[in-house]
Amino acid sequence: MDKQTLSYTDESLLGKTITLNNCDREPIHIPGAIQPYGFLLCLDEYTQRIVQASANTETYLGQPAESLIGGGLDRVLAPDQQAKVEALLGSLGTAPQLLGVRLDPVAGRPYFKIIMHRYDGVLWLEFEPVDHLEGAPLDLPFLNAALGQMLAAGSVLEFCQHTVDQVRALTGFDRVAIYRFAADESGEVIAEAKRDDLDPWLGIHYPATDIPQQARAMYLKNWLRFIPDAGYAPVPLVPVRNPVSSRPPDMTYAVLRSVSPIHLEYLRNMGSAATMTISLIQNGKLWGMVTCHHLSPRLVSYELRDLCQFIGKTFSALLASKEQLDNTEYQLRITERQSELFEHVTVSGQNNFVDGLCRYTPTLQDVFDCGGAAVCFNDEIVTLGTTPTPDQIRDLLVWLQVHVPEEVFSTSSYAALNPAGLAIRASASGIIAASLADAPGNYLLWFRPEQVRTVTWAGQHEKNQTLVDGQVFLSPRQSFEAWKQLVENTAAPWRPVELEAAKEIRLRISDIRLKVFNELQSRARSLTRLNAELARSNDDLDSFAYVASHDLKEPLRGIHNYSLFLLEDYADKLDEEGVHRLQTLVRLSQRMESLIESLLQLSRVGRAELELEEVNLNEVLEEVSELLQLRFEETQTQLIVRHKLPTIMADRIRMQEVFSNLLSNAMKYNDRPEKVIRVGEAAIELFPAINRDELYVFYVQDNGIGIDPRHQTNIFKLFKRLHTPDKYGGGTGAGLAIVKKMVEKHGGLLWVDSQPGQGATFYFTIPKISR
């Protein structure tokens, strides 16, 4: 038996009444009973004789459990079926093996699925009745689409939402939710898919005690637990104790294992008649669970449960990468806002750094997630967002000077350190305080409100019935109240990246106030060194461009040409697979050459200086349309230019490339028989916020497939495609990234307005400048 399980349970409670006072020590791994939607036979691992059976065998087999003890599988199975089972018994481990059989010796010859494993010196044969021997075929298209969604998810929350949608689609449960554990082992529902008429659970929090430690230990071993009918009466084993070990067998890996009566009562109080739970595990620890609920009993086949378990394991394998995406995105956002804030501070100068922190966007408050911020300098307090009052902040400053020697201090529960914190917990349960060097009483402060005030109860507020025969039972509403008691006066914890950002901001402000000649001189030397390194890096980039355009492209052409020669000369000597592989080699070499060309083009755009001149955009558009004329005719595309375009100061070649890329995309991403592209200068009333004395606004509009708004930022990223490489004519995904860089090089902006199936309009601005 596992030592970890032993440390959480008390086997002396076996057979005794389980209450709220002892359920945290309940030996749930040895209940001595099963759920009655199937029956169980326990075989001695050496003799392969039946040593225990569930008391409901008479219901399924017409034979009482007592009559089976000491017998063999011939009491249940025909000789051919018995041989199949016995052939598997020797290789069993904790991982289950599945076999579909017809019980020929039983009246009616019913079908069952036998789920077999070996554990605790016992061969476990769990029988689940089914309508027919063969399970439903594996839906590979669904599974492929599901895994594709999980892989493509750009954040943990999106990843979780895809997962609950998929599990609900597979199983048909009324509600499927993901429950994530916090560092203190409390939990929160962060994603759900449900029937429209059910109240949402999103944001509901539960205390750690709702899932006892022994249950968590079992979730780490057995990935899935299933209860098709929460109103069941447990069926005992006969005998309850294994004759060999003189104790109940360890049912950790048993599918039919009966669960805690406290848990069943909890489910009934939730209104849940059937549940399935899938563990989500990261680095050997329970990260969370997929929890499924149904308002009526629901039997889900073993094959579907196994597929859901596969989804849970896939989720667990991909989770770290999704969390890294979230962390990287948040860190990048902090870094970007920090850089902008430093620019404001630098422009404001040494004497007006407070203006740089507070007057312009982003402010000190905007750098990372918080409720409010304050700059305390020379007895003045400037606040941003939701903060304590100035007098309360002054009291906080006094406390900091007496009790906090650190340059940067943080807490998620100020009230736990200072009773005066109770008065400001609504806005400042969590605090980061960064002292400004050589300036007593001068601080940068960030505040977070009490966490419980930021959580909205998403379910019904009335309490469920909690008193039955004088015994109190847990309910979801009670659990939320228990969680509230645990986190009162406490804010969401500060993340390490936020504390690092506070330290960096403090150092930057301190530098501004404490500049001395030696520091400036040191930084000047550092800048000189960095410039020299940058120059060397640019030389390296030039060398890379040369190698990529010559040394790399030449062997690629060789690979491409020799592949074509092989196809021409030996296609009739190769089988279909060989020809296919050569064709794939040709296609991949062409794609690699396109990628290298796109990288080179993007590099040239970023580093080459613009050659500004007066450019007649009508002439530019006419030149581009002439080059694309054949493609217009092939794709039946009509180009319409609205009104005469102006003459602007720009780089003529770059403008040609901008229009060429946008027109090519408008043709490519269009599945209509008659394609229409409109080009023109946007009407003034469309963008009242844009100063038309300073900017031109142009558009390229198509009637194509359109772009979902949630993807409209990603399409401008390098090599970012919203389709497979072989769809819509392929492509490298670099075109819009190049257009964006060209427009920004001119000092303009590029954006898109689109809906799926309604075409897309790309707008870009060019500054109005004179020679």
From TrEMBL:
Residues 155-313 form the Phytochrome chromophore attachment site domain. CDD domains: HisKA (cd00082). GO terms for molecular function: phosphorelay response regulator activity; phosphorelay sensor kinase activity; photoreceptor activity; protein kinase activator activity. It holds the Pfam family PHY. It catalyses: ATP + protein L-histidine = ADP + protein N-phospho-L-histidine. In the N-terminal section; belongs to the phytochrome family. It comes from the Bacteria. Its EC number is 2.7.13.3. One of its GO terms (biological process) is detection of visible light. This is histidine kinase.
